[in-house]
Amino acid sequence: MRKRLLYSVLLTALALNLLIGAQIYFKSAQAAEKENIYPQIELFMRVLERVRQDYVDGDKLTYHDLIHGAMRGMLKTLDPYSEFMEPVKYTSMKDDMEGAYGGVGIVIDQREGTLKVAEPMEDSPAFKAGILRGDKIIKIDGKPTDKFSSGDAMKKLRGAPGTDVVLTVTRATLAEPKDFKLTRAAIKMDTVKDLNGHREFSVDQNKIGYLRITQFGEHTGEEFAAAMKKMGNQGVAGLIMDLRNNPGGLLDEAVEVCDTFLPRGQLIVSTEGRSARLKSEEYKARNKDQYPGVKIVILVNGGSASASEIVAGCLQDLNRAFVIGEQSFGKGSVQSILPMPDGSALRLTTAKYYTPSHKVIHEHGITPDSIVAMSPEEEEAMALRRVLGGVDSLDDTLRAKALSAHDVQLERAQDFLKAMNLYNSRIATKKPAQVAAQQ
């Protein structure tokens, strides 16, 4: 009886095991069949060959052209920041980060088939000529750009220093398209500037200093440290860090800037991705707060993105800085650069950034503590005042535009720091008993 019962239990367990195993097998088989790459490769090859044989201008195509075009299209379907970079564009990107190349100095953004100026780089021919963020490039050397990719445009704009290129742009404040003749130059620029576009970094009578980070390049951290040292030697008590229209750049440089004002071990930013290598990574401060008594205001606007949002979000989260301006862009994703054997590279979104309190930046941006909006006219005036050489280098019309509006965001930051300094000085002069009584 016991043997029969034991056999029955074993047979039942075996049957259940076989049933569960079969279900798992069939589910795995179905999943494998669904994700089987070989039929898709076969389809791709059929399309490739059909295009080569039957396309009306197929004799002008090469396998290189078609496959690179397919890769560009594939990466383009993922998100706005992933892309397949041809060798020329990859080299161009590396030049941008290193801060030296031959060209006119324009960051180009392509949306809905239109080439726009995302930002004219500081001290570049485009910046000096008055090219502004948001300008639409409709022609390059007289050729319409409606069918240009951003890569095509970069090839046209870059070249040997001393050669010329003509851009035709449209702008909301221009009645008609305008031609700008630009002479290419070796673009080598500082990324940290003072209020006058130089590297003097003096503080005013209220001990308030100002610096502007144009982008986070390979040397931003050391430039920032040198600027802070100059202001520190002058007894700086308040700092305005201007990150407006800063499109971002290198994460390590943004971390280094934050590290200046945080205690050792403090979380600055974290990344979370899908792959095991990028599942979770934390960046923490390695030094002590070098300027603990300095009050900080950070200026941001819709052109502040990526690394600049990391800095603003981190120091705001930790109550180390007060943020003034407009909602930032909301580009909080990590792009890994994966070089290919032929000199090309994949720029692939592999993770997202999170502030110390785990707020997501991507598609949300940084909300200022004090929202201060600027009109298009005020933004244009601000850009013109930043032209190398100052407003005196402009013609009468542009000079009038530059002086026509106040930088209300900067003025609000100055007022805030003046108030903080006044409050701190009053507290310092009171007797300890009075302070204790107020608390």
**Which word captures the global form?**
globular
**Strand segment tally:** 19
Average pLDDT:
85
User: What is the helix tally?
Assistant: 13
CATH superfamily of the domain at 192-373 and 407-426: 2-enoyl-CoA Hydratase, Chain A, domain 1
Which segments are poorly predicted (pLDDT under 50) over 5 or more consecutive residues? Answer: 9-16
* CATH-defined topology of the domain at 192-373 and 407-426: 2-enoyl-CoA Hydratase, Chain A, domain 1
Short description:
The chain has 439 residues and is α+β, with helices and mostly antiparallel strands.
Can you give a write-up of this model?
By secondary structure, the protein is α+β, with helices and mostly antiparallel strands. Among the domains are: 100-188, PDZ domain (Pdz3 Domain), CATH 2.30.42; 192-373 and 407-426, 2-enoyl-CoA Hydratase, Chain A, domain 1 (Alpha-Beta Complex), CATH 3.90.226.10. It has 13 helices and 19 strands. The protein has helices spanning 2-34, 37-54, 63-76, 87-98, 125-129, 150-157, 220-232, 251-259, 307-317, 376-385, 396-402, 408-429, 432-438, and strands at 83-85, 100-103, 106-111, 114-120, 136-140, 143-144, 164-170, 178-183, 185-188, 192-193, 208-213, 238-242, 267-273, 281-284, 295-300, 322-325, 333-339, 345-354, 370-371. A six-stranded mixed beta sheet has the order 10-11-12-15-16-19, with helices on both faces. Strands 1, 13, 14, 17 and 18 form a five-stranded antiparallel beta sheet that branches. A hairpin with a 2-residue loop joins strand 5 (136-140) and strand 6 (143-144). Helix 7 (220-232) packs parallel to helix 8 and helix 8 (251-259) runs parallel beside helix 9 (307-317). The protein is globular. The N and C termini lie far apart (85 Å).
